[in-house]
Amino acid sequence: MVVVVVVVVVVVVVAVVVVVDVVVEVVAVVVEVVVLVVVVVVVVVEVVVVVVVVVVVVVIVIAVVVAVVVVVVVVVDVVVVVVVVVIVVVVVDVVVVPVVVVVVVLVVVVSATTGLLIANTQFT
User: Fold this and answer.
1) pLDDT at residue 92 above 90?
2) CA distance 85 to 83
3) CA 44/CA 52 separation, integer angstroms
4) Is 105 exposed, middle or buried (0-12, 13-18, 19+ CB in 10 A)?
5) Distance separating alpha carbons of residues 62 and 110, to the nearest angstrom
6) Secondary structure class of 124 (helix, strand, coil)
7) pTM summary value
């Protein structure tokens, strides 16, 4: 009878040990799966952060390029306006002023001549 009790106790102890071992293994697998999920989430977050940083850098580069283009356009506009003003001033100085002077001189000469002719005919 003692042998049967010992065998039953041994079987119960072995069964408890096996159940505890299985539970420990299941818990270990669950912990490993949770760790893997956490690692995957961390990697995904890191990838998203890298993508956001790349997008921000690209936006900054585009903004710098646009700023440079705007500055170049403004400089070109200013240069064109200055060149046009210089050309107009030169044309006025070289062409218009002499023509106006010649016309004024001709008007004065014609007026004087006409006045002399009129005066001459009145006294004769």
Assistant:
1) no
2) 5
3) 12
4) exposed
5) 69
6) coil
7) 0.52
